[in-house]
Amino acid sequence: MGAVPKTKLTVAEYLAIEKQAEFKSEFYAGEMFAMAGASREHNRVSENLSGELHARLKGGPCQSFSRDLRVRIQRTGLYCYPDLVIVCDEPEFAEEDKDTLTNPRVVFEVLSPSTERYDRTTKFLHYQRLPSVQEYVLVAPDRAWCERYVRQPDGAWSLVQFVGLDATLELKSVPVAVPLADVYARVEFPPPEPRPSA
């Protein structure tokens, strides 16, 4: 006897489950994927970045939202929870759910060992299919280091790295610059790994 095929969920079923769920899940191709808990460093970096962005964007045409706001990529069907997003002008929400954003301009993901590969590859490809996304920023939780990808007019993405507590993360599509010393305030970095002797 063959295995019973797994029943795929509809978007409506996913959203109904998500409203009642204690923990958040992402959704793609009829399946829900529970989100793993984050480390202390991950949370500290995310909170620092959220506070810094909020303070710098206050009173302007752009605003930031934290990881509790779901994003939908219409072209691929992915529903996900980025760590942070920046929206400019009026936020647009999915017709089927007013807690699902559809037009982020900048997306931030704070990396973790369990999601780094996914954030760098598959998830980035999904974000690229969302026309409103102009920048994608990856933030390390265990060292002062960020990568910023910027969409170019030809559709390619250019990369700039910001490394060290003296560096400043500068966005291109939004006039914001955040010193990494502020992003990593009160973050305890692990000791550097010993280098092998020559």
Give short descriptive properties of this protein.
198 residues, alpha+beta, tt1808, chain A, 5 helices, 14 strands
Task: Explain how this protein is built.
By secondary structure, the chain is an alpha+beta fold. The protein has a single domain, classed as tt1808, chain A (Alpha-Beta Complex), CATH 3.90.1570. 22% of the residues lie in helices and 31% in strands. The protein has 5 helices and 14 strands. The strands form 4 sheets. Strands 3-6-9-10-11-12 form a 6-stranded mixed sheet, sandwiched between helices. Strands 5-4-8-7 form a 4-stranded mixed sheet, with no helix packed on it. The radius of gyration is 18 Å and the shape is globular. It starts with 10 loop residues before the first helix and ends in a 15-residue tail after the last helix.
Topology:
Layout: H1 11-20, E1 25-28, E2 31-34, H2 40-57, E3 62-66, E4 70-73, E5 78-80, E6 84-88, E7 93-94, E8 97-101, E9 106-110, H3 116-120, H4 122-128, E10 135-139, E11 145-151, E12 157-163, E13 168-170, E14 177-179, H5 180-183
Parallel strand pairs: 4-8, 9-10
Antiparallel strand pairs: 1-2, 3-6, 4-5, 6-9, 7-8, 10-11, 11-12, 13-14
Short characterization:
With 198 residues, the chain is of the alpha+beta class. It is built from five helices and 14 strands.
CATH topology: tt1808, chain A
Outline: globular
Main sheet makeup: 6 strands, mixed
CATH architecture group name: Alpha-Beta Complex
Distinct helical segment count: 5
Order of helices and strands: HEEHEEEEEEEHHEEEEEH
List segments where confidence is low: pLDDT < 50 over at least 5 consecutive residues: none
Count of folded domains: 1
Overall helicity: 10-25%
Q: At the fourth CATH level, what is the homologous superfamily?
A: tt1808, chain A
Based on CA atoms alone, the radius of gyration comes out at 18 Å
Please report the total strand number as a whole number: 14
Please report the distance between the alpha carbons of the first and last residues: 60 Å
- In the sheet with the most strands, the strands line up as 3-6-9-10-11-12
CATH class division: Alpha Beta
How much is the average pLDDT?
93
* Class computed from helices, strands and strand pairing: alpha+beta
Organism: Urbifossiella limnaea
InterPro entries: Nuclease_put_TT1808, Restrct_endonuc-II-like, Uma2
Protein name: Putative restriction endonuclease domain-containing protein
Domain Putative restriction endonuclease: 12-175
